[in-house]
Model the fold of this input.
Amino acid sequence: MGRTNGHRTTKKDGKSRSSASARPQSAGRKASRAPSHTQWKDWKSMQQCKVIDPETKEPRIFKPLDNIRILNCDWDPNRAYPPSCAWVGQIKEIRGNSPGNVWMTVQWYWSGKDIAERAKGTGDLDTSFYGKFERSRSLDEQLISLDSVNGIAQVIRYDETSLDQEPIPDDAYYTRSIYHPHTGSISAQLGGESPLCLCGKQYNPDRADPMHFCARDGCRRWYHARCLRSNGHIFAASRAKHAGGLFDTPCAGLQHVPPEVLATARTSIVRGGKRHGVAGNVKRVCEARKWVRLLAETGGNEGTCAVLRVGGQLLEKWLEASDGVEVEAIIACNDEEDVHSEGSAAGDGEAPLFVCPSCSNPI
Done:
């Protein structure tokens, strides 16, 4: 995780930047005191700061708006911690009065665990749906020492309502909400509130209960596979008919669509758990369905196809992005959690086939 020595920071509890709890604690050596408000304003503002990583001996540059990992005051300096346990913040401003005394204003990202601890005794606040790499943005700011910085953190904004959401790597932090420490509330950050599943529960990406998505206009809703199964929303016909009903393009135009595009378009949109990932395959499958519609409408005309774009990409470039990626890796819908306990149109041992509870079309 990069630097393992330095000051451990005590995260403030929604108090002002000058509070005592905002000052870093020492990690084996005497820590310099946080500057007062007057001192901070008198110090030189810096566009970036550079430190030498003690392990790699390589220079590391930190700038305003960088997301960073921050050393936790409760960490044992002689123990390695997984990245999911790190505190995360965004640098807002950097100032210093000497190369060895550099401080920065950081805006915190809060984990579900941190929020739950903060909310103790002040009312119930459900954070059980937070994934281990999930963080909520906040407007909370705090001064921390450069010595508290543990490295750069990748934080991806996750919009559950978007059809263009990029996949989120397994080891990347992600944020889909804003935490308000002073009011003890959590609000959606992007795209508004995502409609909940039939069960009324929020989506936890770490749970082995994948969710299926209906991308049709008027639906745009995710459902737990377990909820679809238990409520009888099972597709009773063949797997081929299910695949053909995932989008509304007439069969007459499908001969103009490359097989790999059609195969991706005919897959279910799924997210959740290690197999599918946080955001799942929504972007790739929705793009494939756009290509199917466009290619079918143009009748395979080479001149027209040469200038068509989806997601800003020509078809050739879009297909190149799929090179080396098996369709099964995009689909990834054979989780043990998804398999019928009884025989069905999907076949014993195969992933189940579902229909949308709202529009009754295959999903």
User: Anything to note?
Assistant: The first strand starts at residue 44 and ends at 46. DSSP finds ten helices and 17 strands in the chain.
